[in-house]
Sequence to fold (295 residues):
Amino acid sequence: MKSIFLPVTPQSMAVAPLLAAAKLAREFDATLTTLLIQDDPRAVVPFLGEGLTVDMMQGMYEAAESEIKEQAVRAHQIFLTAMEFADMPVGITRDKRPQGANARWLVVQGSVADYVGKRARTADVAICLKPDPATSDTVEIFNDLIYRSGRPVFMVPAADPKSLDQSWEPNFQGMDFLIAWNGSAECARAVAAAKAFMPSDRPVSITQIDPTKAGRPGLSDLALYLSEHSIDTREVRAELESQSVGAQILAVAEAERSHLIVAGAYSHSRWREMILGGVTKHLVTHSTLPVFFCH
Fold:
């Protein structure tokens, strides 16, 4: 674990994922790359022929450019404040990597789809804020990471997105993990990626709400796999009830006092989950815990 990627926009900028990413980087002596994606000022200027003169269009461009620069300054200040709070060195360039944890700040202009999923492909893990429908950028970033990066995604909640004192920070050796197992390839990838974080001094809880589909590995297979990596497990039995599978996973997490959930993302098709709902959608919408996803 040496490369951590955190994509943000001026609208999605928050303290919680910054502190989580910094703590993770410090724990693994890794590089944290925070990428700010800004609007291109040319994209806000209407095309000729819409009733605007050249001077009017130039004025709109300059106003947009000024606002974008101000947004970058504000976002960079939040980044620097969080890194100082986390005691994280900043200012590392690509051609000068020091020993130990470090952070760098990059700025690009374009859309989330232009950069997020593609840039994440050369990181070990991506971190993002829990999607909030009221802030469309958080939804776009999460979806682009899940579907286009091919990397594990660490979704972080934010009790108060602007508070340094109330934001969630990982302490992996002191955390109780819950693996929501279903035997799918997506869940297997999530477990394989998350085992680097799993504690060595306490068992990891593993649960399976609905029966494993024929041919898929069950809880005993998962327990054996983790034992081969010196990770102890504890089975938590849960029967499928009238609640949805996602709701029962969260109920088990609450009963077990878990700090983090590991799960596959969108084992069913994205459209099926969007229309009919599903485990991933429920966890994204309702979890107050961080969730470690893989698609």
Observations:
- The chain has nine helices and ten strands.
- The CA atoms of residues 35 and 106 lie 5 Å apart.
- The two ends are 19 Å apart (CA to CA).
- Residues 160-164 have pLDDT under 50 and may be disordered.
